[in-house]
Amino acid sequence: MHFTLHEMIEKGMLRRIPSSSEKAIESIRTSEQWLKESEQTFKAKSFRSSLLTSYLALFHVSRAVLFADGFREKSHVAVVRYLEEVYASKGKLELKWIETLDYYRELRHSDQYSTAFIISEKEAKDALVVSREFHERIKLFLSKEKGIKE
Question: Is residue 82 within 8 Å of residue 73, measured between CB atoms?
Answer without folding.
Answer: yes
